[in-house]
TrEMBL record:
<dbReference type="InterPro" id="IPR023214">
    <property type="entry name" value="HAD_sf"/>
</dbReference>
<dbReference type="InterPro" id="IPR006379">
    <property type="entry name" value="HAD-SF_hydro_IIB"/>
</dbReference>
<protein>
    <recommendedName>
        <fullName>Trehalose 6-phosphate phosphatase</fullName>
        <ecNumber>3.1.3.12</ecNumber>
    </recommendedName>
</protein>
<dbReference type="GO" id="GO:0005992">
    <property type="term" value="P:trehalose biosynthetic process"/>
</dbReference>
<dbReference type="InterPro" id="IPR036412">
    <property type="entry name" value="HAD-like_sf"/>
</dbReference>
<dbReference type="InterPro" id="IPR003337">
    <property type="entry name" value="Trehalose_PPase"/>
</dbReference>
<comment type="function">
    <text>Removes the phosphate from trehalose 6-phosphate to produce free trehalose. Trehalose accumulation in plant may improve abiotic stress tolerance.</text>
</comment>
<dbReference type="GO" id="GO:0004805">
    <property type="term" value="F:trehalose-phosphatase activity"/>
</dbReference>
<dbReference type="InterPro" id="IPR044651">
    <property type="entry name" value="OTSB-like"/>
</dbReference>
<dbReference type="Pfam" id="PF02358">
    <property type="entry name" value="Trehalose_PPase"/>
</dbReference>
<keyword id="KW-0346">Stress response</keyword>
<comment type="similarity">
    <text>Belongs to the trehalose phosphatase family.</text>
</comment>
<keyword id="KW-0378">Hydrolase</keyword>
<comment type="pathway">
    <text>Glycan biosynthesis; trehalose biosynthesis.</text>
</comment>
C-alpha cells in the first residue's frame, strides 16, 4: 500500500522566479546584517572583551525603555516589560548603579519598570530624580529639593521646567489639529510630547507631519525629532539623553570618576546622543538594539530585548563572580 501523496501544486515560471527572488533577497539581508555586525559586534559575543575592560572599574548601567526592555508594540500604553526582564533588571540594579533613560515621562516609565532600586531619567533625560544625599553636587541651577510620591526626600533635576506652561498649551493644540486624523495619538511625556502615527494610514502620514511641522513654526524654542513611527517634540535646550548620562555619571559620587565606566543600551535615534557622549568622554560601552543594519554611533549591538535580557543576566552573574 502506497503512502498518500501530497497534492501537486502547479508551478509556473512566475512563482519560480518569485521564490528565487525571495531567496536571493533573504540572502542579501543576511549578508548585509553580517557586514554590519563586523562594525557593531554583538555585545553577547564580545562579552569577555567588555568585562575584561571593565575589570576593576565601577560600571554604571544605563537602559532605554521602549524597544530595549520591552518590545515595540502597537499601543504605547501596553508596552509592558515581562516579569522575567524586571527580575533581571532588579538584579543588575543590585550590582551596579543603574538608570532608566526614557523619552516617556518619568512617572510613566516608573509605572512600567516598577523598581525602586534604580535611577530614573524621563522626558529624554529632562526629568531626573535622585534620593537626597546621593549626589556629589546638590546645588546645580536646575535642581530642586522635593518630597516624592512615596514620601522620600529627593533632588529633582529639570532643565526644561520653564517650558512647562508652553508644553501644556502645545499638547492641547496638537490634540486639536490631529483630532480628525484617524489613528494619530498625542502622548504627554511631561517635558516633551509624542505624536504617534503608527496607526495612521500611510497616505496620510505626510500630511500629518506637515500639519505638526507647520504648527511648530509658531513655537520658537522647540525641536522635532523622529523615532519609531513617532514625532517627538521637545524644548531646544542643550540637554538630551547624553547629557543625562553625563549628569548621573559625574554626580553619583564616584571618588575617581575615571573609574566609572558607563554602559548604555538603547534602540532609537535619541539614544544616539548617549552613544555620542560615551565616545566623547572616551570610556564605556555603547550598545544599539537592532535586528537590521542601521546608521549608529554605537560600538556594539544586540538584536532585540530578548538578547538585552541575556546580556544583562550575564553581566549580573559576572559581577557576582568577581
Ligand atoms: O526613549 P524610549 O523609552 O525608547 O521612548 C521612546 C518613545 O517610546 C514610546 O513609543 C515607541 O514605543 C511604543 C510602544 O512599543 C510604540 O507603540 C511606538 O510606536 C514607539 O514610537 C513612547 O510611547 C513614546 O512616547 C516615546 O517617545
Amino acid at each position: 500500500m502506497g503512502y498518500p501523496q501530497p497534492p501537486l501544486v502547479p508551478l509556473n515560471m512566475e512563482s519560480i522566479s518569485k521564490a528565487r527572488a525571495d531567496h536571493n533577497n533573504g540572502d542579501a539581508i543576511v549578508a548585509s546584517y553580517s557586514a554590519w555586525l563586523e562594525k557593531h559586534p554583538s555585545a553577547l559575543n564580545s562579552f569577555d572583551q567588555i568585562t575584561s575592560l571593565a575589570h576593576g572599574k565601577k560600571m554604571v548601567v544605563f537602559l532605554d525603555y521602549d524597544g530595549t526592555l520591552s518590545p515595540i508594540v502597537d499601543d504605547p500604553d501596553q508596552a509592558f516589560m515581562t516579569d522575567a526582564m524586571r527580575s533581571v533588571v532588579r538584579e543588575v540594579g543590585r550590582r551596579f548603579p543603574t538608570a532608566i533613560v526614557s523619552g516617556r515621562s518619568r512617572d510613566k516609565v516608573f509605572e512600567f519598570v516598577k523598581l525602586n532600586n534604580l535611577y530614573y531619567a524621563g522626558s529624554h533625560g529632562m526629568d531626573i530624580s535622585t534620593p537626597l544625599g546621593s549626589l556629589k553636587y546638590e546645588n546645580h541651577k536646575h535642581q530642586t529639593r522635593a518630597i516624592d510620591e512615596k514620601g522620600n526626600d529627593v533632588v529633582n533635576f529639570r532643565p526644561a521646567q520653564e517650558f512647562l506652561p508652553q508644553i501644556q498649551e502645545l499638547k492641547k493644540v496638537l490634540q486639536e489639529i490631529t483630532i480628525n486624523v484617524e489613528g494619530a495619538v498625542v502622548e504627554d511625556n511631561k517635558f516633551c510630547i509624542s505624536v504617534h502615527f503608527r496607526h495612521v494610514n500611510e497616505e496620510v502620514v505626510g500630511i500629518l507631519k506637515e500639519m505638526v511641522e507647520t504648527t511648530m513654526e509658531s513655537y520658537e524654542g522647540f525641536r522635532i525629532s523622529e523615532g519609531k513611527k513617532v514625532m517627538e517634540i521637545r524644548p531646544t535646550i542643550d540637554w538630551d539623553k547624553g547629557r543625562a548620562l553625563q549628569y548621573l555619571l559625574d554626580n553619583l559620587g564616584f571618588d575617581n570618576s575615571s573609574d566609572a565606566l558607563p554602559i548604555y543600551i538603547g534602540d532609537d535615534k535619541t539614544d544616539e546622543d548617549a552613544f555620542k557622549m560615551i565616545k566623547r568622554i572616551g570610556r564605556g560601552f555603547s550598545v544599539v538594539v537592532s535586528s537590521t543594519p542601521k546608521e549608529t554611533k554605537a560600538s556594539y549591538s544586540l538584536r532585540d530585548p530578548a538578547e538585552v535580557m541575556s546580556f544583562l543576566i550575564r553581566l549580573g552573574k559576572w559581577k557576582g563572580s568577581i
